[in-house]
């Protein structure tokens, strides 16, 4: 797995480089600004890009813009975005381009090495890895939607884990239930949310995330912040 990193915090950047190389991964370049990052993507043709949301010069959305541009140049590029805070608009902007090979994590997850590496490998494999705190906020802001109100507490738990990108077996392990129980919950979730079930996990996660995003935008019009 070849990786390019864009992170302007030198301590975090070098820490991630050391961590990944210790895992035997190929870090082709580690940059501190969007321009050098995009040049590195063109030069090294990485499998995965790890990108900070806020980068120079304005430290607002340069990282997101660079990630979107990198995906336009390399549609097969997996992107794992890191953010210091839960920034819903950035998360949903990325999801609007499609969730395959896409991750959005809080920087604090990097210190939880197993979780960070699991998310990285999941994204590199074409899956989705959305930070649980981001998912929790999306679910919280969509509670007024009547279709979400149809879900049982356990179905809501399963939905949150689906939105993080976990497959059926991983959900079963997390909730300490059988695979069959998870499958049943998922069938119920799709029926209650008026979504067509699909056996492919990436399409299933994409549908759930898009539904949550649409519901979040609708709920937001009634609850200005």
Architecture blueprint of SSEs:
Layout: E1 2-6, H1 10-22, E2 26-31, H2 34-44, E3 48-52, H3 62-73, E4 78-83, H4 88-95, E5 102-106, H5 113-124, E6 128-130, H6 132-141, H7 146-149, H8 153-164, H9 168-175, H10 179-192, H11 201-220
Parallel strand pairs: 1-2, 1-3, 3-4, 4-5, 5-6
Helix pairs in contact: 2-3, 6-8, 8-10, 8-11, 9-10
Modified residues (4-aspartylphosphate): 52
InterPro entries: CheY-like_superfamily, NreC/VraR/RcsB-like_REC, Sig_transdc_resp-reg_C-effctor, Sig_transdc_resp-reg_receiver, Tscrpt_reg_LuxR_C, WalR-like
Domain Response regulatory: 2-122
Spatial arrangement of strands, main beta sheet = 2-1-3-4-5-6
- H and E string: EHEHEHEHEHEHHHHHH
- Under CATH, the homologous superfamily of the largest domain reads Response regulator
User: Can you tell me the residue ranges where pLDDT is under 50 for at least 5 consecutive residues?
Assistant: 197-202, 219-225
Structural class: alpha/beta
- Can you tell me the CATH architecture of the largest domain? 3-Layer(aba) Sandwich
Number of domains: 2
What is the CATH first-level class name of the largest domain? Alpha Beta
Query: How would you sum up the major sheet?
Result: 6 strands, parallel
* Radius of gyration using CA atoms only: 18 Å
CATH topology of the largest domain: Rossmann fold
Tally of alpha and pi helices: 11
Model description:
The structure is a single chain. With about 220 residues, the protein is an alpha/beta fold. It has eleven helices and six strands. It has helices at about 10-20, 35-45, 60-75, 90-95, 115-125, 130-140, 145-150, 155-165, 170-175, 180-190, 200-220, and strands at about 1-5, 25-30, 50, 80-85, 100-105, 130. It has a six-stranded parallel β-sheet with strand order 2-1-3-4-5-6, sandwiched between helices. Keywords: DNA-binding, Phosphoprotein, Transcription, Transcription regulation.
